[in-house]
Amino acid sequence: MRKTALALLSVLALAACSHPAPPTGRWEGTYESGDTMIAARLEIEPDGQVRVSAPDLLDIGPDERDAAREKLSSDLEAAWDSVTPRPMDFDGENFRKPGGIAPQMVWKAESRKMSLIVYLGTHPAITIPMREVGGFSDNPWGS
User: In angstroms, rounded to a whole number, what is the distance separating the alpha carbons of residues 67 and 10?
Assistant: First the structure.
């Protein structure tokens, strides 16, 4: 009985120290404000490697929005094959660059919601809600 209890405690201790597995899949999303637009793709591979691309345009005028959406969609599609998978630290909710402090993505497991956090120079961080997709579209803004 005592050995069984000790073995169970050992298993629980090891489980508590293990790193949670990141979700796998693909997500895409967009962001628009008065003068900023971002189109984003994110893929987490079964081995936990992350591919992410988020081209942006700043200082967009009101009459340039349709052209900006087309350009960002095109840039995202054209560059995706050259995006290199990279490791991320994952604590069960936040993804960070290895050894980093600032979150790069946030995963809410209970609702299966992913957010991408984009840092553009000295601007405040931008949180982009991502939607899970089976395959990437050629227009992340949708139809």
Answer: 60
Which residues lie below 8 Å from residue 129, measured CB to CB, with a gap of 6+?
A: 29, 113, 114, 115
- The two tokens of residue 20 are 């949670």
pTM of the model: 0.84
Classified as helix, coil or strand, 59 is coil
**Spatial contact of 9 and 81, defined as CB atoms under 8 Å apart:** no
**Per-residue pLDDT reduced to its tens digit, 19-40:** 789 999 999 999 999 889 999 9
Structure tokens, 42 = 């994110």
In this structure, what DSSP letter does residue 23 have? P
Residue listed under structure tokens 């201790």: 13
